[in-house]
Structure to design on (240 residues):
């Protein structure tokens, strides 16, 4: 986990920002509302952001997801983004807001391998939660590590989980969120079959929690190469 004193939270009111000289242990987090409007005003700067973000995507997931068009979509077609950077981009979280449900839906999350394990992902998500004051957090994933991130915000109120299914009251919202995505949503398990055209990872990450590890393996039919085309849709009630 990154200590608070090592992270300077910067609210960017307008872009482009200046890339600071990198200081050991310092990571800046900038939040942009309406990123399509803000970033599109500065084409050259935005191209630089997209190129750097795409490099992070490639290093995090492999070349299968590398592609500036996809990265651009994750940065623009959302309500807000949080970007972690020093002298270059180290990660970002893009999100949509479902205001009637007071829910933050994570559209994309990527963290450079060089800073993984330092709490950057959690800081990025936390900055958006605090800004919007939401009560619910949701995303799709193949990665059990992301389940643990959700658990850190929501405790036991994570749905589904190895020990509990999602309540029927979430089914309508789940279908609304997943509308337009690839795959087939199972309202009993909240697994979306064939959500991805190909596995997001060269190898889906493992966790030491054997119950969680096995639940992901069984539910997503993860093969011996630790690959799958399926994914979970998760919800968590944030404790404040």
């Amino acid at each position: 986990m990154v200590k608070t004193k090592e992270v300077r939270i910067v609210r960017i009111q307008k872009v482009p920002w200046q890339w600071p000289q990198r200081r050991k242990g310092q990571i800046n987090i900038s939040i942009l509302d309406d990123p399509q409007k803000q970033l599109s005003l500065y084409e050259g700067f935005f191209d630089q952001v997209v190129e750097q973000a795409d490099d992070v995507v490639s290093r995090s997931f492999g070349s299968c997801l590398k592609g500036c068009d996809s990265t651009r979509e994750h940065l623009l077609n959302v309500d807000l983004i949080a970007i972690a950077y020093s002298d270059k981009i180290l990660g970002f979280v893009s999100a949509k807001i479902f205001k009637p449900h007071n829910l933050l839906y994570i559209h994309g999350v990527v963290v450079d391998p060089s800073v993984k394990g330092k709490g950057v992902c959690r800081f990025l998500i936390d900055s958006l939660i605090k800004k919007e004051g939401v009560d619910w957090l949701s995303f799709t994933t193949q990665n059990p590590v992301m389940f643990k991130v959700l658990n850190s915000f929501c405790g036991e109120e994570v749905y589904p989980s190895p020990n509990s299914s999602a309540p029927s009251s979430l089914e309508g919202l789940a279908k609304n969120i997943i509308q337009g995505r690839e795959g087939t949503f199972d309202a009993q398990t909240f697994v979306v079959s064939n959500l991805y055209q190909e596995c997001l990872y060269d190898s889906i990450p493992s966790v030491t929690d054997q119950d969680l590890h096995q639940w992901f393996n069984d539910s997503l039919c993860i093969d011996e190469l630790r690959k799958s085309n399926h994914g979970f849709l998760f919800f968590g009630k944030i404790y404040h």
Q: What stands out?
A: Residues 18 and 87 are 9 Å apart (CA to CA).
